[in-house]
Design a protein that fits this description.
Family: Belongs to the small GTPase superfamily. Arf family.
Strand order of the largest sheet: 3-4-5
CATH topology of one domain: Rossmann fold
InterPro entries: ARL2/3, P-loop_NTPase, Small_GTPase_ARF/SAR
Organism: Diploscapter pachys
Number of helices: 3
Protein name: ADP-ribosylation factor-like protein 6
Helix content: 10-25%
Keywords: GTP-binding, Lipoprotein, Magnesium, Metal-binding, Myristate, Nucleotide-binding
CATH architecture of one domain: 3-Layer(aba) Sandwich
Order of helices and strands: EEEHEHEH
Length: 152
């Protein structure tokens, strides 16, 4: 969220609790809820599902050990009734690090091809450099707009 908001990424730490920001992007007002992913915080996630049009799932591409756990949590999340139909943007973060898992590897480990209930797309990104973040957010806005808004 920091890089997208134009803030310094010199000191990035895991989100403890949640952060809420509203930003303008390509004519849309985006209400971004950055919710921590630690196990102790996951039980609170459902408090933020109401009126959710999109879900951004950030994966640490450098932590291959946790990808299986990440897959389980994503499957649980996508089965939540209040998230049915929400666009899913998967950000394979930390692609700037040596040895990072590829987008193809992450897509396979998360079993993204099996997802039928949501439009989804995965992007290789780096929160530090900003690589592909704008492209990813553009896709997300366009996907949500194509579902939510109809031409009259």
């Amino acid at each position: 969220m920091k890089k997208f908001m134009g803030q310094s990424t010199d000191q990035i730490e895991p989100t403890l609790g949640f952060n809420i920001k509203t930003v303008e992007f390509k004519g849309f007002a985006l209400n971004l809820w950055d919710v921590g992913g630690q196990r102790s915080l996951r039980s609170y996630w459902r408090n933020y599902f109401e009126q959710t049009d999109a879900l951004i799932w950030v994966v640490d591409s450098g932590d291959k050990e946790r990808l299986a756990q990440c897959s389980e949590e994503l499957k649980k999340l996508l089965s939540e009734e209040r998230l049915v139909g929400a666009s899913l943007l998967v950000l394979a973060n930390k692609q700037d690090l040596p040895g990072a898992a590829t987008v193809q590897t992450i897509a396979k480990l998360l079993d993204l091809d099996a997802i039928q209930s949501h439009h989804w797309k995965i992007f290789s990104v780096s929160a530090m450099t900003g690589e592909n973040l704008l492209d990813a957010m553009t896709w997300l806005c366009e996907d949500v707009a194509s579902r939510v808004f109809t031409l009259e």
